[in-house]
């Protein structure tokens, strides 16, 4: 809802309406908007839900944020336990600092309702623009279609190709091809793919790239469509599922869709006496901490997280300053990082 709605007979929500819906005082709503650190997480959550439900946008001090007296970008991240998103935040902060702005950051654990609430909260405080990391098409549609703040919204880690908003992503299809190519170049001829839900766009693109490059060398695919998280536990169960074929020499190379999954696969196999990489080579994806800070450093496909964040922040400022700005998608190239899970002495 915007000020122009008044001419159409629609009543703009007030801070009093938000307070009434959330069951708090107007002062508490003001603190959530201007000093969220002063409010308990439970109360802040109630107020943010009310702001989102009422599509509330404040007058007064918050409007000065847009005019430049206080300057901030909103950054909504999927999972701060994954170092990829920490790298993305560094890139955003670097560009924001160059423009004399700061960053308001939120973590959602890939929960759509939390994404919506934070997006509404950043719109209510009138951040100069917001960047959000997602990987699910349904989340993209819900957020893109529902955004009415009139300020830049940029999607990160997602190939949003409908032209409604700017987006930055790594070429995950090419990343999957790099993984297959490396395994073949190191002499592997019986390959396995440990994938994930097709609803996750980056995962689907990586799988498709790997399958196209591997061709007839792809011996087995392990996918649990119901997997809640791409984590070590899922990797461990996938490794156990592949164990008998590896012991019979029917599989000698594995591509796991994320580093945490690859780490779980490696743990399951090494615990069962499989030698890595002598018996089977393993490639992960992301180059996060699970790849480089582990007993067996993992070969992986590196995503340029900091570059992704920087490119997204640059798009926000470009849209703010260029009246002829056209939304576009920025593609970043992945790179292969070779470690001991595929080459004994890289």
Explained architecture:
This protein is α/β, with parallel strands linked by helices and 346 residues long. It is built from 13 helices and twelve strands. It has helices at residues 15-22, 26-34, 41-54, 61-67, 83-98, 112-124, 137-146, 172-185, 201-214, 232-247, 259-271, 289-292, 305-321, and strands spanning 72-77, 102-107, 129-133, 153-156, 166-170, 191-194, 218-222, 253-256, 281-286, 299-302, 329-332, 335-337. The strands form two sheets. A six-stranded parallel β-sheet has the order 2-1-3-4-5-11, with helices on both faces. The protein has a six-stranded mixed β-sheet with strand order 7-6-8-9-10-12, sandwiched between helices. Helix 5 links the parallel strand 1 and strand 2 (102-107). The longest helix has 17 residues, at 305-321. The radius of gyration is 23 Å and the shape is elongated.
Layout: helices, strands, pairs:
Elements: H1 15-22, H2 26-34, H3 41-54, H4 61-67, E1 72-77, H5 83-98, E2 102-107, H6 112-124, E3 129-133, H7 137-146, E4 153-156, E5 166-170, H8 172-185, E6 191-194, H9 201-214, E7 218-222, H10 232-247, E8 253-256, H11 259-271, E9 281-286, H12 289-292, E10 299-302, H13 305-321, E11 329-332, E12 335-337
Parallel strand pairs: 1-2, 1-3, 3-4, 4-5, 5-11, 6-7, 6-8, 8-9, 9-10
Antiparallel strand pairs: 10-12
Helix pairs in contact: 1-2, 1-3, 3-6, 5-13, 8-9, 10-11
């Amino acid at each position: 809802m915007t000020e122009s709605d008044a001419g159409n007979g629609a009543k703009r929500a007030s801070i009093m309406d938000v307070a009434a819906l959330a069951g708090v005082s107007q002062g508490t709503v003001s603190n959530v908007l201007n000093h969220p650190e002063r409010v308990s997480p439970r109360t802040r959550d109630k107020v943010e839900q009310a702001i989102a439900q009422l599509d509330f946008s404040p007058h007064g001090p918050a409007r000065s944020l847009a005019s430049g007296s206080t300057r901030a970008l909103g950054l909504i991240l999927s999972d701060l336990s994954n170092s990829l998103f920490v790298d993305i935040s560094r890139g955003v902060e670097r560009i924001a600092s160059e423009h004399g702005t700061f960053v308001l950051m939120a973590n959602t654990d890939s929960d759509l309702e939390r994404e919506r609430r934070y997006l509404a909260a950043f719109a209510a405080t009138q951040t100069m623009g917001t960047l959000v990391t997602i990987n699910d098409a349904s989340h993209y549609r819900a957020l893109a279609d529902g955004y009415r703040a009139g300020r830049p919204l940029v999607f990160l880690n997602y190939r949003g190709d409908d032209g409604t908003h700017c987006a930055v992503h790594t070429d995950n299809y090419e990343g999957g091809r790099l993984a297959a190519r490396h395994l073949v170049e190191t002499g592997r001829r019986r390959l396995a793919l440990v994938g994930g839900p097709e609803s996750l766009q980056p995962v689907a693109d990586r799988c498709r790239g790997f399958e196209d490059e591997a061709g007839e060398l792809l011996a087995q695919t392990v996918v649990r469509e119901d997997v809640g998280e791409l984590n070590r536990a899922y990797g461990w169960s996938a490794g156990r599922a592949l164990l008998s074929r590896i012991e019979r020499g029917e599989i000698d190379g594995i591509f796991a869709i994320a580093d945490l999954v690859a780490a779980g696969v490696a743990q399951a196999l090494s615990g069962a006496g499989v030698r890595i990489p002598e018996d089977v080579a393993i490639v992960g994806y992301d180059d996060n901490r699970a790849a480089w800070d582990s007993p067996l450093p993992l070969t992986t496909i590196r995503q340029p997280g900091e570059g992704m964040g920087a490119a997204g922040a640059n798009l926000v400022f470009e849209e703010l300053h260029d009246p002829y700005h056209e939304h576009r998608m920025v593609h970043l190239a992945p790179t292969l990082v070779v470690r001991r899970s595929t080459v004994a002495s890289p």
